[in-house]
Amino acid sequence: MYGVPNANADVLEDESQSCLWCWEVSSYNMWEKEQKRLQEEEENDEKGRVREELEIKKQLRKHRKINDVERRKKLN
Asked: Which of 45, 49, 54, 74 shows its CA 20 to 30 Å from the CA of 38?
């Protein structure tokens, strides 16, 4: 393995100076992936909220149209 003097060393448990870089790289990669996942989750949540809002507005417009038709019928 690159950077590890002992090929049999467990780089995720060895805390010697020569193996610590493996932890740092691994932690950063995991952090970066987690940040990306959280961002995608947030974007999906936002899209869901927008869809819900549009659906509510659509239902309100439909309800208003029905009420307008009923009022016109009463007036005639």
From this structure: 54
